[in-house]
UniProtKB/TrEMBL annotation:
Organism: Caballeronia arationis
Protein name from the UniProt record: Efflux system membrane protein
InterPro entries: DUF1656 (IPR012451)
UniProt key word Cell membrane: yes
Transmembrane parts of this sequence: 7-29, 41-63
Stored Pfam families: DUF1656 (PF07869)
Membrane as UniProt keyword: yes
Keywords annotated in UniProt: Cell membrane, Membrane, Transmembrane, Transmembrane helix
Amino acid sequence: MIGEIDIFGVFVPAILVLMLVAYLVNLAIRTVLARVGFYRFVWHRSIFDLGIYVLVLGAVVVLSHRFMS
């Protein structure tokens, strides 16, 4: 994996792009969980959402590393 991505002449760290992708996936997961009513069983929603984001970010990093190699 390269360290930077060139977007119209602006070098952006690759992790920033991966974090944006993880955020969009996390947003979709949160929407589904809210519609299903899963958050009724969660003690602290903010911590739970952070945990899901960290897991999704880790999965995105692993998948991007696997597909780029």
